[in-house]
Design a protein that fits this description.
membrane; 5% strand; single chain; 14 helices; name from scop; mainly alpha
Length: 384
């Protein structure tokens, strides 16, 4: 189990994560089967051969025409012209075979890995590739042993199939020279087809076994320890402590937002709204003759402050402008609680002024003073 242990001694028992799989594709590490490539290309060649059988004689005659000379021109001209035509004939016939084989190779790899993956990192020079000790380790590894057994098995089975086909078709092979040209070629073609079919059957079985083995080895190589899975989860989603802190902050922010929305419903019942005049707004409630200090019903800044002022005006609530007091109430107070003790005097003076103003008395606006520790700028910093 040493090959499945990490540096920390943990066994790689966890299936690879999606991130590990994507990283392996970026590095060019995807499952690939040589036996599947051999089978798919041979199968494609077999179908191409079946496709050209109706044209085989025309191809033979076209080839034989290159060796015919009429004597109308010099022999040297015939030789060069026929060489040129011969090269062109071989080139285009090779292209007709090469293009389908190239497409099949691409599709075969797509069958294995699900996508064509062009990875430049696979071409990078790595010290392990030129390290002789790493090379010796690869030579005597399980992978090398399996490749050697596959090669030996392939030779034995293919050679055995060839001997079997030749033995069963011996009569056709021995009588082929005794018949005419077309008949002899036809008999040899039949034997050749049987030989290819036998090879394909053997290679198909070997390809299926090799594909299963390659997927098993690839998955085994990418397996992770439990600690690696946890570390990757932390890198992707953050540590549990950070996520818990974020959730707490989200819950707190959500709770505050809900509290402020509910507070907006209480604005029409406020006694007064203190503003500065638009950036901050604090709605206060106080019933004359009751014990205790005024209560903060709602407060906000910016758009929310304008909303509080608008709701208050629609409900007939008196709006009083005092920049420093509005900031002090906003930064030092809490919704649903009494105003801070240092602000009692200032708020009492303003509420008294509003009370008498609402009764129709002619009163002057009070000049309130705040304690030094209750003076804030618009960002909540002390300006004392």
């Amino acid at each position: 189990m040493a090959d499945q242990a990490s540096d920390g001694g943990q066994e790689k028992t966890e299936e690879p994560t999606q991130k590990r799989l994507e990283k392996s594709k970026e590095d060019g590490e995807v499952p690939s089967s040589k036996e599947l490539f051999v089978f798919s290309t041979l199968l494609t060649g077999f179908f191409l051969y079946i496709g050209i059988i109706p044209f085989i004689f025309s191809i033979i005659f076209e080839w034989s025409s290159l060796f015919q000379f009429s004597g109308e021109t010099s022999l040297q001209d015939y030789v060069f012209n026929n060489l040129k035509a011969g090269y062109a004939l071989m080139y285009w016939k090779a292209v007709l075979f090469a293009l389908p084989l190239f497409v099949i190779v691409i599709l075969t790899q797509m069958t294995m890995s699900g996508v064509i993956n062009w990875s430049s990192s696979a071409l990078n020079l790595k010290a392990s590739r030129i390290n002789p000790f790493s090379g010796l380790k690869r030579m005597f590894s399980m992978k090398a042993l399996v490749e050697m057994l596959k090669a030996i098995g392939k030779v034995i089975f293919l050679l055995g199939a060839a001997v079997f086909v030749m033995f069963t078709q011996m009569d056709k092979l021995l009588t082929a020279p005794a018949t005419h040209l077309v008949g002899g070629i036809s008999r040899l073609g039949d034997v050749f087809l049987l030989l290819i079919i036998a090879f394909l059957l053997i290679l198909a079985v070997m390809a299926m076994l090799d594909v299963s083995w390659q997927f098993y080895q690839h998955n085994k190589k990418l397996k992770m320890t439990l600690q690696e899975v946890k570390d990757e989860s932390k890198q992707t989603d953050g540590s549990p402590e950070v996520k818990a802190k974020i959730r707490r902050m989200q819950m707190t922010a959500g709770s505050r937002a809900k509290q402020r929305r509910e507070a907006m419903e209480n604005v029409p019942s406020a006694t007064a709204i203190i503003t500065n005049p638009t950036h901050f707004a604090v709605a206060l409630k106080y019933e004359v003759g009751t014990a205790g200090a005024p209560i903060i019903l709602a407060m906000g800044r910016g758009y929310q402050a304008q909303e509080i002022i608008s709701i208050g005006k629609d409900a007939g609530v008196t709006v009083f402008q005092n920049e420093l007091l509005a900031r002090a109430l906003f930064f030092a107070g809490q919704i649903g609680e009494e105003i801070p003790t240092p602000l009692f005097t200032a708020v009492a003076a303003i509420l008294g002024f509003i009370y008498r103003l609402n009764k129709g008395d002619a009163v002057d606006e009070p000049d309130v003073e705040l304690p030094a520790d209750m003076l804030f700028d618009e960002n909540g910093k002390s300006i004392s």
